[in-house]
Amino acid sequence: MADITDKASAEETVTLKDMFNSYYFKAFWIGCVLSIVQQLSGINAVVFYSNDLFKGDEVGIEGEKAAWTGTIIFGTVNMLTALSSTFLLKMFGWKLLMVFGQFSMGIALGLFALFVAIKLNTTLQIVMVLLFTAFFEFSIGPILWLYLAEILPPAGLGIAVFLNWAVVILISLLTPIMIGWSKVITFIIYCAFCIVGGFFVVIFIKETKGKSKD
């Protein structure tokens, strides 16, 4: 018990300045980039503007009905996948889940953009959005916070969380402008971010599940 207390106390004395020395810096920049990668997946673009996505090309009452129904389904899927992700986190390594999630999210968003572009069945578009959400909740959604706690002391963790929220704000401001310009291109961009994020995880992330920071 004393060792755990001493280790926690030592981490609390680490300052932001210490994050830039050779001992902490690699974990610091990887944690910060991964925090940004989580939001560049486009999850909050989907959350904030789900009504517009689910409405599709419908207008009037039919459009509102489609948006209302889709949003309820979206919320339900989001909740159920978040709850069931606990079992996957216990069964598989965090890196494996993040790699699978990033590339799967990219595929789902790519197909969503394709279906929008060719004006394919709105139901299939909704299915892609729901699959994207499920992949997020099975992977980098919850794992980011577990991973950051594994590799960073509080000083570094605070900066990583700040960057995460800064990107949330940026996405909330830019997404409606981007969707107004082109919904297809908007989600192709988020698709690309997911794929790039997947390669980042493959190259730079080490498996930490069940391992100490040492």
What report would you give on this structure?
With 214 residues, the protein is mainly alpha-helical. The protein is 81% helix and 0% strand. It has helices at 2-12, 25-40, 43-48, 50-55, 60-91, 94-117, 122-138, 140-151, 154-181, 183-204. Mean pLDDT is 82; it is low at 1-10.
Outline of this structure?
The protein is mostly helical and 214 residues long. It is built from ten helices and no strands. The protein is globular, with a radius of gyration of 19 Å.
How many E-type strands?
0
Q: Give a quick account of the main beta sheet: strands, pairing sense, barrel closure.
A: none
Total DSSP helices: 10
Poorly predicted ranges: 1-10
Q: What structural keywords apply?
A:
globular; 0% strand; mainly alpha; 214 residues; 10 helices
Write the SSE topology.
Blueprint lengths: L1 H11 L12 H16 L2 H6 L1 H6 L4 H32 L2 H24 L4 H17 L1 H12 L2 H28 L1 H22 L10
Helix pairs in contact: 2-8, 2-9, 2-10, 5-7, 6-7, 6-10, 7-8, 9-10
